[in-house]
Each structure stands twice: as structure tokens, then as C-alpha cells.
């Protein structure tokens, strides 16, 4: 098999034994942070299109990938498809999200057991009503590690949508008109006990169920939508560090 077109590396780049688990960040800087701070003997596989991918060893010596999905489901779907073609069988999304519940504070993490998947790309993979559910074993492991490490977490349902502004009911943006169908949607989701907004988990979960790989998602909470629309940069560092620490601890158990 040649180099995969978008991710920019192929089977011959993966070493022996090749990794079967990938930590997948939306942000290439986070993929790099994971590699730099948590892995040993790191090799940059590609920085094609900003889809930075790193191969490295966990402290136990097991190889994993730290890769980038880019923002949103279309980009994630391409990266995940190509990673699975290369033999990846476990994917943990390490992301950021905005809380819509008062009791899920910035700086904490959300472990998604399933997603409300309002994402167009996912409809090319399975019907809208197909379950966007996370792998139960990975998800329980994330909860166990959060408890062991003393990381504040919430376990629940995530809303995965296609847009950061309109789809997450942000009104203070360049768009002067929020569709009537989106006005009040956050309040409705709050009553449905959805915890947070982000932009990839639902499609990742559906892909996991259809393709037959294990998928999970942990996101650091960087916005409190019960109070404001803007991301809180002061909370971001800790939230992301916690999400990374959890994902790496679970990777040790599943790689
Ligand atoms: O921080 P990442 O992993 O990119 O995740 C979140 O951040 C981006 C929006 O700011 C979207 O990709 C959303 O899902
Ligand atoms: O509010 C937020 C924060 C991060 N990512 C999102 O998609 N929404």
C-alpha cells in the first residue's frame, strides 16, 4: 500500500510492530503536545495539510500514533478512514468542548458515552438514526482513570454539530441571522441532559460502529455556554492537559 493521500504516510513508515491505537486531536498543536510531553522516541510522520502525525512510544514501550483530525466531521472522516486502512483499531479523540450545563465547569473534562450527531458527513456513512455510541470498554476505562487520577469529569451525551457559531447557537458572530430552527436549541439540549458541544465525536462514533474499530472521546471544557459564548483561554491549558493525561492513561491499557 502506498502513502495515504491526505495523512501523508503509509504502512512502511509505521515500524514493527506497527501501532494499533491513535490519539486524535482536532488541533495539530495538541497532537504535537501529546507527542512531545507524553511519548518517547518520537518520529514526525507527516505534516501534510496541517494533519500532523507523530509515531512514538508510551512509557511502557508500546507504539501509538498522535494524529490530527482537523476541525469538523468531513476532515475527521478522511483522516479516520486512512488511519483504519493502516491498521489502527482504537481511536481516542482528545478534544475541547463547550459546556451547556452549569455543573460541568471549565477546566474539567467530558467523557462522551454517545453523541447527538447533527453532522452531514455522518449521513454518508450511516443513516441519521444509526447510533453514535462510543466503545463501552474504552469509555469505562476513561472514567476509571479519571477517578484514579482525581480529574474532575462528567460522563454523558455530547452534541456533535457541524458549525462552531450557528450550530452551537452563538449569536455574537458575523452572521446577523440565526435560523429559527436553531434559536433555543441549546436550552432544549440542556433539558435533554446533553452536556456539551463539539464538532467531531458523533461522526467518529458512527464510523467506529460501522467500520468495526473502538472509538472514544474525552474533551477538555473550555467554554461555559450557560454564561458566555467565548472560549475561556485561562481554563484551556488545564482542561487540555487533563484530557491528554486521561487519554494517555487509557492508551497504556489498550495499545
Ligand atoms: O479542540 P478540537 O479537538 O479541535 O475540538 C473542538 O475545537 C474546534 C472548534 O474550536 C472543533 O474541532 C471542536 O470540536
Ligand atoms: O464551545 C466550544 C468549545 C470548543 N469547541 C466547540 O466546538 N465549542
From TrEMBL:
Catalytic activity: uridine + phosphate = alpha-D-ribose 1-phosphate + uracil
Entry annotated with the keyword DNA damage: no
Source domain of life: Bacteria
Keyword Glycosyltransferase in record: yes
CDD domains noted in UniProt: UP_EcUdp-like (cd17767)
Gene Ontology biological process terms from the UniProt entry: nucleoside catabolic process
UniProt entry keywords in alphabetical sequence: Glycosyltransferase, Transferase
Residue span(s) of domain Nucleoside phosphorylase: 21-254
GO cellular component term, pick one: cytosol
GO molecular function: uridine phosphorylase activity
InterPro entries: Nucleoside_phosphorylase_CS (IPR018016), Nucleoside_phosphorylase_d (IPR000845), Nucleoside_phosphorylase_sf (IPR035994)
Pfam families hit by this protein: PNP_UDP_1 (PF01048)
E.C. number: 2.4.2.3
Record-stated family: Belongs to the PNP/UDP phosphorylase family.
Name of the featured protein: Uridine phosphorylase
Species of provenance: Meiothermus luteus
